[in-house]
Amino acid sequence: MSLERFQKLEDYPEDPIFSVYRKFEEDERKEKVNLGIGVITNEEGELYAFKCFENLLLNKNNSYLPISGDNDLKKHFAKVFLPFVPAGQVVSVQTVGGTYANYLSAKLLKKLGFGKIYFPKPTWSNHLSLFKEGGLAVEQLEYYDDDVKKISENFLLEVKNLPENSILALDVCGHNPTGVDLNSAELEEVIKIGKEKKLVYFLDAAYVGLVGESIEDDMTMVKKIYESGNPILLSFSFSKNMSLYGHRLGILSVMNFGGAGERIKSNLDYLVRSSISSASRFASDFVCQVLSDEKILNLWQEELLRIRNYLLKMRKEFSQKLQAQGIDWGREVQNQNGLFSLLPELKTEELQKNFGIYIPPNGRVNVSGLKESNLDVVVKAIVESSL
Ligand code: LMR
Predict the structure, then answer these.
(1) Ligand 1 centroid to 96 CA: how many Å?
(2) Is the separation of the CB atoms in 367 and 38 below 8 Å?
């Protein structure tokens, strides 16, 4: 009887992003190219290592952190990323990557009595599973128009049609998977509707420092929505901007909570304690060193800007080379931002099989995988595979 339950267990397909990553790792071809999982790599295709972190030492302290994480980390995080929020007006908890900040948000929203969240369509594939597993229904609003590769003309209309007190999810910058962000007029419009409709925002910040010219630029959406007074749950990741992927460090910050800070804190403590017990230490000790040292902090931001400029340069070259080959759907790539562009026209299976070029089935290209050394090969493969 009980064995039957095991045999009838639902079978889930392999995650599309990690599946492509696994296949890339298993591929023995020397010339293979990884344009899949969202990592930033150097010219040799290895994970980017920040030069300004070279002399940082790992703390030897192995003892437990408080349940909701290192208070110093949270203090420095607020100083660097949320300078527009007065002290005491934010409740933060350290998380296992930005992903766990997503999951905790779902759990907290559920405890707050919400039943549904609205994500842009398309969105990071894991968003949907995380919020479903967190107990919320998920719906999507038409965010992106693939024909023109820009924000859909229907998006603002769909936001306008949301029921009052809905939860609207937005990427703070460098939208994953499209690389297309709201412009300032569109953001102002969302905020205006948000006030009328008393929206609650779930904001996902996975690329801060890699999209605009500064951290301040990339946090504009958070600042403007904060100033509008609507409640915000902000999920922040250090994976890409500190190259800490496998160390899994993020932060969930709740703002504009109407005086319920202590209750939010006790709920988050309870949710962490009853799932992962308490926050993990290695990466948080590391990030705390960076954020608390003015000199390293400045060097880090300079390095982030160089990476961001390089990504923009590669976008432009990629786009122009595609257009030179008559591939018109590559045109908008140069006007997009962050790590990704979404190109469903790509024949991803053929690119993988015949050329060792790895891109998830939805055609999301990680621009950081493009190098001066592989750009011509990639463009040629795209042309040949589309014939
Ligand atoms: C991505 O979108 O590729 C990254 O955020 C990795 C992941 O967890 O999916």
Answers:
(1) 14
(2) no
Percent of the chain exceeding pLDDT 70 equals 100
Q: Is residue 276 part of a domain?
A: yes
* CA atoms of 6 and 259, how far apart (whole Å): 47
Whether residue 82 contacts residue 90, with contact meaning beta carbons closer than 8 Å, is answered with: yes
- Residue 246 C-alpha to ligand 1 middle, in angstroms? 11
Task: Give residue-wise pLDDT tens across range 55-78.
Answer: 888 778 999 999 999 999 999 999
Pocket, ligand 1, Cβ cutoff 6 A: 17, 37-38, 124, 126, 176
Q: Looking at the whole model, is its pTM more than 0.90?
A: yes
Last residue in a domain, options 259, 275, 293: 293
- Tallying the residues shown for the chain, one arrives at 387
Q: Which atom of ligand 1 is nearest to the CA of 237?
A: 5
Q: Give the number of the atom of ligand 1 that is nearest the alpha carbon of residue 98.
A: 5
Most distant CA pair in the chain, distance: 64
| Minimum CA distance residue for ligand 1 atom 4 | 38
Separation of alpha carbons 331 and 320, rounded Å: 7
| 224/289 same-domain check | yes
Per-residue pLDDT tens digits for 30-47? 999 999 999 999 999 999
**What gap in Å lies between CA 189 and CA 186, rounded to an integer?**
5
Q: Which residues contact 79 (CB under 8 A, 6 or more apart)?
A: 291
Q: Are residues 220 and 348 in the same domain?
A: no
Ligand 1 center to residue 230 CA distance, Å? 28
Q: Which atom of ligand 1 is nearest to the CA of 97?
A: 8
